[in-house]
Amino acid sequence: MTTRHKALLIGASDYDEPGIRSLPFVRDDLARLSATLTERGFHSAEVAEHRRGITLNFVKDQVSRFLREAKRDDTLWILLSGHGQHYEGIDHLIPEDASFHVHPFASSCVPLDWGKELNETRHQLLENSHSRGSALSPPDPPGPPVHPTQLTGLTTAQITDGLSRLGLGVEPIPEDLAADIAMEDELHATLSPDTITTADPPPDRTNPARRISLPALASVAMRNRVSFREAAQTATRLGMSHEAEDWFG
Questions:
Q1: Which residues make Cβ contacts (< 8 Å) with residue 153, sequence separation at least 6?
Q2: Residue 4 CB contacts under 8 Å (≥ 6 apart), including other chains
């Protein structure tokens, strides 16, 4: 039987939660990627959309359907584009209906874990939690499958390197997003139990680069299993500015 290469592209861009920055480039990126995959010989490259947005249930339904409808010899590629979080050892896509009012926040996100579905279908899956950067040059259909664990739970640099080896190009990270990533990494290192505690540096609130977003605060809280309040207050102590500064008195 002839192997078919099929792709499912899902992008979260217009978030309901005011504290989560929208990603207006996602929709155009997926449209371009779909056209390029088709030109390179993919049997199909579907961009999943819904009038109610890219919600938690919609993403789960689309992925389950995509796996269920695949034939025995199909090679499948699933690309999820949007903000992401790492919680209890599992990467999550933040859907457009995610809410900070839900606790834990990860329960309103999409876990990148379709092991049960994969075991049932026995198909190959390439899964990319594409939360920072835009894939521009997709790989040619032939080539070995890549397991999800090779592209998840890694640093941005490691993900970029892995995508490059697959023939994928990644756009440079915008300066403001790179600064947010740096603040998230610094805060995570401070809260990590493996970090040796040192004296806090003096706050520098005159530096606009030391601003951390609400999703980054939530991510650090989940990764270190601390409350959002503790993460926010620690960020303030480190001299980072953020939208939650006045939330806790």
A1: 86, 89, 91
A2: 43, 71, 73, 74, 75
Token reading at 130: 């594409």
The answer to pTM > 0.85 is: no
* Residue 7 contacts residue 79 (beta carbons within 8 Å): yes
> 5-33: per-residue pLDDT in tens?
899 999 999 999 888 888 888 888 889 88
Cα gap 8→180, rounded to integer Å: 29
CATH 3.40.50.1460 fits 5-165, yes or no: yes
Helix (H) or strand (E) holding 8: strand 5-11
Q: Map out the domains of the chain as residue ranges.
A: 5-165, 175-237
The answer to whether residue 95 scores a pLDDT higher than 70 is yes
- CA-closest candidate to residue 77, choices 144, 169, 9: 9
